[in-house]
Amino acid sequence: MKEKILEAFRDLGFKLEEEEGMGYCFNYEGLNLLYMYNENDEEFLNIALPGIVEVEEDRMLQICALLEKINSTLKYVKAYMLGNSVWLFYERELIEQREHSRTSSGYGESREKKNEGQLFGEEDLMTVISRMILHLEAGLVFARKAMAEIEETMANDSSDDDTAESAEEIVAEEIADDEDNE
Which of 8-12, 99-103, 171-175 comes out lowest in average pLDDT? Predict the structure, then answer.
């Protein structure tokens, strides 16, 4: 399975470089992404966008608000703190085609022959990977806008009252606003 995924990346024009213990790095429009292969779950596809925001102790409230905003708003992209930075992830299971559906559809057979090596079950790996990358890019744009809004809100409120309690209230308000929007 790993070879099919790597082949799909190559067919899309990506040059992957293996990073020991991490996966395969590749570049898309100036973004450094990481395909993370899981030996224990070959049908699981994980692409990460590392280090979108550096985590500093004095900005921990803003970082927590950002993680909450991303994870509660975006459907496919999720944010986590790893080390001293925030990473975006898009993870999904690849759907394997059942044997009986493979032989019952002439269209499926001809499509599979046409794109041999690019399909996993009924999924076109090139399309899946492309969509995952585009979602991560959109997630980064969302994260940058959200972080700017969070910092602006905290700066405006801190000029009124520079206490830690007001910062905690801002984070609580952001969370409440997100829950109201769901």
Answer: 99-103
For 102, the 3-state DSSP assignment is helix
pLDDT at position 101: 41
Angle between helices 164-181 and 60-73 (to 10 degrees): 0
Which residues does 94 contact at the CB level (< 8 Å), separation at least 6? 1, 43, 44, 45, 120, 121, 123, 125, 128
Residue 144 · residue 76 · CB < 8 Å: no
Q: How far is CA 53 from the centre of its chain?
A: 14
Q: Residue 17 has which token pair?
A: 């470089």
Give the range with max mean pLDDT: 20-24, 63-67, 178-182.
Answer: 63-67
Q: If you write DSSP's letter for every residue of 151-175 in order, what string do you get?
A: HHHHHHHHHH--SHHHHHHHHHHHH
Residue 23: which region, alpha, beta or left (left: phi > 0; alpha: psi -120 to 50)? left
How many angstroms separate the CA atoms of 168 and 128, rounded?
A: 40
- Global pTM value: 0.74
